[in-house]
Amino acid sequence: MNPAFLCRWLLVLWLAVQAMCASAQMPAPEVWAKDMREEVVRTPVTVSDMYGRTETRSMPVTIFRPAGDAVHPLVVLNHGRAVGDKRAAQGRARFENAARYLVGKGFVVMVPTRIGYWETYGDFDPEQSGTCKRRNFAPQHQAVSDQVLATVALARTLPFVDASRWLVAGQSVGGLTTVATVGRNPSGLVAGINFSGGSGGNPDATPGSPCNPDALGQQWARLARTAIAPMLWLYWQNDLYWGEDVPKQWHQAWVKAGGKAEFKSLAPIAGDGHLGLDRDMDHWLPLVDAFLSGLGFNQPAIVTKPPATNWAEVDEVNKVPLSAKSRTAGYERFLAAGTPRAFAIGSQGAWGYATGDYVTGRALGFCLRSGQACQLYAVDDDVVWPGR
């Protein structure tokens, strides 16, 4: 073989291998929800930690909102706190599936990624609360609720938000953030929803047994004295951070001190019940929907299974109104999945499918991300698409 040709061939091969390695190391591109006009804005927030250090940082806030130009009430939705150094990898908080339901209810949803997470992770952590035996929760609660109020202040500058009516919600330390905010009784706050809220849990080292839970109960009792807005508290029985009984003790401390909160204990789910906000929508959606209806937010938003139609049998792949490529990439994978399952199609070739929890809403949402009009095509073993 000609040496020059061999050298060129080896160079091409080396470049190809380098490109493959670079591609393997690059994260998958983030998919934004075009139908909810997802955007990220940044707003200044000033917070202090338990040591008295005060910083002003730029806080990223993800915004989802309904179509059209109408003005809508607000939900500030708050994320949790990973254990230890795992916080560095938490990324931007979105809660897309929960946000899609709330946008369907007619809310603008704003999700702050608090200081100390994602792009602000590093030298300043205003959520530290001391050692296990000497917890100091007051500065933490002040810092997290300050960031909620900064988000509401940003909302007041937006023409599509009615910030005179807003709710606060969140999961894990985001649930704690919800409790902290309700305890401050800010202007315009209508209600709070606490998903698995708390602090001090470690599912790896001490599953179901959080550190010094009495200290948090005492802090929440102090906050309850000034709380007015009603709350809904949702906890799963197999929560590996708190266990089944500790959240009930926190709830008792809250209501005994004058706070208003309805407690719901949900059945165990696969894995860690602490993740029920994302993994058990089938069961929490009706509870939250009833709570919101009681507050006057009655717009239907839970996606249910339509009746079966005569368009096709579920396994008639060639009748699915998509390209052959999309049928292979999407619909055949849907058919190979077990039930529950759902598949949605878009007006211009988009598709989405889901299995497991809340398949109707999630499949439709994955399709709607594209910005196209979408409908459910099949749910479980039934075609539900009405045809063109």
Largest sheet: 8 strands, mixed
What's the CATH first level of the largest domain?
Alpha Beta
Query: What is the rounded distance between the termini?
Result: 61 Å
Number of helices: 10
In sequence order, what are the helices and strands, one letter per element? HEEEHEHEHEHEHEHHHEEHEE
Number of domains: 2
CATH topology of the largest domain: Rossmann fold
CATH homologous superfamily placement of the largest domain: Alpha/Beta hydrolase fold, catalytic domain
**Gross CATH architecture of the largest domain:** 3-Layer(aba) Sandwich
Number of strands: 12
The share of residues in extended strands comes to: 15-25%
Determine the structural class based on helices, strands and strand pairing: alpha/beta
Unreliable stretches: 5-28
* Major β-sheet strand ordering: 1-2-4-3-5-6-7-8
Give the mean pLDDT: 92
Q: Categorize the overall geometry.
A: globular
Helix content: 25-40%
Q: How does this model look, in words?
A:
Helix content is 33%, strand content 21%. By secondary structure, it is of the alpha/beta class. It has 2 domains: 34-294, Alpha/Beta hydrolase fold, catalytic domain (Rossmann fold, 3-Layer(aba) Sandwich); 317-383, no CATH class. It has an 8-stranded mixed β-sheet, with helices on both faces. A 4-stranded antiparallel β-sheet has the order 10-9-11-12. α5 (213-224) links the parallel β6 (189-195) and β7. α3 crosses α4, α4 packs parallel to α5 and α5 runs parallel beside α6 (246-256). Residues 5-28 have low confidence and may be disordered.
